[in-house]
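Q: Sequence in, structure out?
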Amino acid sequence: MSEQKVIYAIGHRNPDTDSICSAIAYANLKRNMGCENVVPARAGSVNKETKYALEYFGVEAPQLVSDIYPRVKDIAVKVQKSVKATDNLRTLGMAMKECNLRSIPVVDDENKLIGMASVSDLAKAYFQEITLDSVSASGACINDIANVIEADVLVAGNNEGKIKVAAACMEKVAESIKAGDVVIIGNRPESAFIKCIDLKVACVIITGNTTISDEVVAKAKAENVMILSTAFDTYSTARLISQCAPISSIMTTDVISFKPSDMLSDIKGVLEANEYRNYPVVENDKLVGIVNKDKFMMPEKQQIILTDHNELAQAVEGIESGKIIEVVDHHRFGGLQTSDPIFINVRPVGCTCTIVTNMYQQYGVEIPKEIAGLLMSAIISDTVLFKSPTCTQTDKDAVEYLAKIAGVDYKEYGMAMLKAGADIGDMTPAQIVKNDSKEFQIGNYPMLISQLSVMDTDQVMAMQDEILAEMARVCTAEGYAMSIVIVTDIINEGSYLLFSGEPKNLIGEAFKQDASKSVMYLPGVMSRKKQIIPPLSEAVKSL
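A: Exactly. Output:
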């Protein structure tokens, strides 16, 4: 519930090194150019290769953003004012007037929400006429009354008593006054004041700034009777005293509240079914904010900068609820549509971080050592140390430039990083199927295409049956026509293609091989972007 909403620079789901590092580096560039609320984020777990790069250069992984569906925390505002249940109604009314609020949360001494008090609650109270007897019963003391009627204390004394108004003749009033009462009296003969003192009342409230003699003051002191003087007339004083009732006497305790993490789509029905304008936001029983119903109707969209992808199927969950403001990428365009013109920097190079590096140079922004290291790591990863057919001279030049800033031998470092990423360790078939996975729409067929780069393919291919079974399960459970896993051999520069689902003849047509066994070897194939997606996109046209 920050005042300035952050802008996320974020890569695709199931992020690879380029996805993570481009988000970190581009967010840093934007902040250096004055956009201080741009922060890097990731839409999935950090893989081993990326973890190696982050730890080597001492950079923390970006925050995990699982989705950008609008939530209560996105529209909640800080609490302007809260009150206590023991505060009086005048305090409540003045707070509402001061902050221009129609309702105010009621909290205890530990800031735990215990109720809400609204203008309508106040109105009902006045229509129902809070009586002076009810004020007395509420436990309001004479000091509370003195504050409300802005009285001067002429004689200090007892602080409690039942309130009476001396509006009739004194003889009649005296019949109802008892010792310990609080009497409101206006411009009366001095004998009336003396009579009240003789009856041993607790307090005499003199209205209209009526002057009393020293004799009355002396007698009051002698009898320990408190005397207050107010400028308000008797009627107004009685009305004001009714405002001494505590907020607990009118507040609503059956309060509808929300958590910061509640999704707006989940609370929509509650808001539509109730007429309240404001709703408290509570976390761990503590009041942390307020949601206004008007804000719910037009929530501010989460602004997003897409790095290393542009297809919505690959983007963070809930992207349709956000607002894409920039795209920095090196992939094909996948039908992106926006409501407003946006900044797009898409180039046919081997890595998004190559583009980000060029932007630092273009804008004259110095690249910090650790950022240079991450940019270099991503380019080495995406181009497989320049072995991938996607690699361009621009990528090579960028790596040499960045390596000097980072102070490393990029060949030695690059092999170590690729080796760290190629270690499948105890990866399960499920993890392999989702490793560096992206969703693609190939013709009418939604596909999940994953890639795993290793130094030796034997360990992965030994799990071929289990992997294919998991791929079939994913297709059924998640609605893909096909699941494809590319197992890339970094050393021998080729890839095994595992595939499950239909149409298998699409695979055979694309790569001109027998597709009946759900696996094929593609020598020289290392790039999903340049050597897998284009043949599939062309082959589907002939089906």
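The chain has a mean pLDDT of 89.
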